[in-house]
Amino acid sequence: MAEMRAVRQNVLRDEERLPPVPDPGVMVIFGASGDLTARKLVPALYDLAAQRRLPMEFAVVGISRTEMSHEDFRKKLLDTLEEQRADSVSEDVWASFSKGIFYLPGDSKKPETYEELKGFLKKLDAERGTSGNRIFYLSSSPSLFPAIVERLGEAGMNREEDGGYSRLVIEKPFGRNLDSAVDLNGDIRRYFGEKQIYRIDHYLGKETVQNIMALRFSNGIFEPVWNQHYVDHVQITVAEDIGVGTRGAFYEEAGALRDIVQNHLMQVLCLTAMEPPVAFDADSVREEKVKVLKAVRPIPEDDVGEAAVRGQYDGGWVFGEGARGYREEENVAPDSETETYVALKLLVDNWRWAGVPFYVRAGKRMPKKATEISIQFHKTPHTPFSGPDTEGLEPNVLVIRVQPEEGVSLKIGAKVPGSGFEVRSVNMDLLYGSAFLEEAPDAYQRLLLDLMLGDPTLFIRADEAEGAWRILQPVMEGWSKNAHAARYAAGTWGPEEADDLLGRDGRKWRRP
Ligand code: BG6
What we know:
The chain is of the alpha/beta class and 512 residues long. It has helices at 2-17, 35-50, 70-85, 91-98, 111-128, 145-154, 178-189, 207-217, 248-273, 282-295, 304-307, 432-435, 443-453, 462-481, 496-503; strands at 25-30, 58-64, 101-105, 134-138, 166-170, 197-199, 231-239, 308-314, 316-318, 321-323, 341-347, 357-363, 370-377, 397-403, 407-415, 423-431, 486-489.
């Protein structure tokens, strides 16, 4: 009897561990001829199909203005997939997955497009069993977001009928500033409830970004020291070696503050600084993140020069190759002052972090790609060893490497082998790649699956998007009065002014 019970319990446990497969449904992608669909969304869906994590009754419908047949669209997607994966695209998986891919040419501003789409989706429900479940993925130009939402609403496609769901996914940038983000939230909420809205930030889909929470909340040893009593300051770096490439026109409008800081960097800051959530569910996690955003002290407009640095890359060398300056990039004005580098000193006004600066920076054309969080602890109050013996000793630093070489390292003091008592800093290193056999899925894979399963935990709530803008608004206003961007050579760690930002506090940027 007891044995049978044990067997039954094991079966139950195995079932709980089986990855869930979403219900049938359709993903409609607006702006489907763009890069994101071919480079990110479809490869992620293909991988899910290869892992049998997509239901058989699943379809993708691409919409954009370009004239294309279903077959042309499939071919374009396959070409990009093959470019990315060389020989590893399975003919069988692609054959069965691509049967569910369709394309409708149409102007997303015109009501006719939505009438046609509605009919097409009904047909798919009947022929492919997609069960009335719809995801509307807005990957078009952000200027079209309000119109698309309104047309969807007017066509009644926002309504969840007969048990089917209707979800709206919005790509970044979410607005251009605080006012436009508030307006956009208002426009969307006229038709979609917050539970139907999924604001996507691909950083939250990264395993190592989620690992910030795993590290903090599944270990007993970090939380007790994760506060102003032990932490001297925190540095968050999102560095890229690439320049703006072919995205000059987009970047001229965005700049690093809107492209990276408002979303990816602020999210990483929230996960690093937040209180432990009571549960790992959408409300609990997002509630704690919003509290961090509320606690970040906006930099007063008059202090922007002191606490915020904007830079732009000139020509230089990256990995031994000549790199042109931002102003020489395609579709960039020759006198552009758009920032390709941002550094900020932020303060989080709460009990945990009072007086602990968070220095954050994001830049293009840095010497390497590196996203990391470093928690720099206070110096020991006293070292019993002689001065010369401790010259190579630095305070403890915990570094969470988000990418590349994903892992965690802790800088600790250790005795140099020998007869004296020389102590030096060394790194204790954990590489996720060698600790686990499983390969980390791409960020979009994780997020698309959560979206289909209806789990918004790793998506951004309206108040988070607005909270991040609230912090950055005075910085943007300060900069609008003095648009000058400090210069840095491509392949360096940003302008001198960024070193001064920490130098004034007697600190230095870490070299990732
Ligand atoms: C995107 C930005 O959101 O993130 C790009 O628009 C940037 O400018 C990219 O290059 C960086 O993402 P990742 O995953 O390569 O760190």
